Amino acid sequence: MPRRVRKFQHITRSLRFRLTVSYALFFSVMLIGVGTIYRRNLATILDTQIRDGLEQEWAAVKGYLRIENDRPIWYYDRDDPDESFIIERLRRVFVVADGQGTVLADAQGNLQISEAYESIGRDSPAHIAAALHSQQPQWEVRKNAKGVPYLLRSGAVYDENNRKPYFVAVGRSLADNSHILEQFTWTYVAIIPLVIVSGCLLGWFLAARGLTPVLEVAQAAQRISGSNLRLRIPSRGAHDELDFLIETFNRMIDRLENSFNQIRQFSTDVSHELRTPITAIRGQLEVALFTASTADQYREAMLNSLQDVERLSQIVRALLLLSQAESGQLALQKTRMNLSELVADVVDQFQIPYEEARVRLTADLPGDCPAEVDRIQIERMVSNLVSNAMKFTPAGGEVRVRLRNETDGVELVIEDTGCGIATDHLPHIFDRFYRVPGRDGSGPERGLGLGLSFVAWIAKAHQGNVRVESSPGKGSRFVVFLPVSVPADRRPDAAGTPVASGMNEL
Ligand code: ADP
What we know:
four-stranded antiparallel sheet; Heat Shock Protein 90; alpha+beta; Beta-Lactamase; 17% strand; rod-shaped; 3 domains; binds adenosine-5'-diphosphate; Helix Hairpins
């Protein structure tokens, strides 16, 4: 397609062009509509005026004209210039005739028909008869040979004895009215293109003013890419709809940047986590290969490698689970159950191993605590929290598990008298791979830093939440709240919809 055609298409498709055309169309329709209505009103007013004038003339004729023995006589003071003028005006377009259409003549023999009336033609006997017998005034428009229209008002005037009717008509030329209407029409028609052109220019200009900031926003948005998500579109400070759009857009970029950073951090953490056991396996195998000579030494190297492989598969399993949870593939399987029993079972599992570690584990559970939850996930959550509490509580300490029925849900509290968590670390402990440094040693027993991420996700997936309070050296307290009867429409697993992701949001 030639460049010029493409450019034209580009312009015609632009919002600016379409706005301008809409402006022009709107203006045209409005102007034509207004003009038509205005012209019709003007015509009506002019017509009413001329009819009123003729009615008055007719009344004047009846006042001044007497017909005695077929002789019309005009009664007025001939020395009064005003009256003479009135009579002169009345007789500009007029006729006085008898019932047969014969024009009457006055005493001086002057035929009572004006030149102008003569030019439009005499009345037919039928018309005269109709005018004489009708009670209503007769109105008629007639043109002369030159095409000048006249409005005529005719009727009957009786002789002095009120017996014989005579046909009298007065009229006025409509030329002035036609001229006024014509002038109005032409002036208006001449103005329309002017108004439309200026309307288009105004529309083009206003559309440009309105759309330039949009283009600027679009250009600024174009500069933002995956690698420079730090850029923001500057607000114009006008506090208008466009600023609202910019603000919304910037907030979206904020969220995108956060997600990008999280993904980046996640990949770094994962590679770091995987690298440690891989390096260890490699080191052990190298040592075995180059220095081991006895079967025991080989066995030990293989045992150590196996432990690291175990840790590797643990990490991979946890990551798989996490990514399933994040992508919404891990749909909750909710069933109605007694939460007390579930928590009691988990606590039981921890009793024996930690009795040896001399940590007291107590549970305060109500007899019945009905809830609709995913058994496996809630078990995982309680188990993670209890395991952490026990792990970070030294010998002689205590871990208390408490479950309580609340009005709008259930509250699970896991409290310990362990080492606690410093305020600096508290906001991060629910992040993936986050471990309080120097806390849980190293080696295969070392946690993955994923347990609390799961806890947070499970609580959130059940429409609940988890919060933590802790004072270093004194202990920690994790509180999970779960709404018991989750409304059907808010259930994340309703109709198989994926559960919410965002593992490190609380
Ligand atoms: P991990 O699986 O390694 O235990 P978590 O996500 O469960 O990871 O916990 C993150 C960090 O939070 C842990 O490394 C630990 O330092 C801290 N933490 C968790 N629970 C407690 C607790 N009850 N007392 C003290 N520190 C805790």
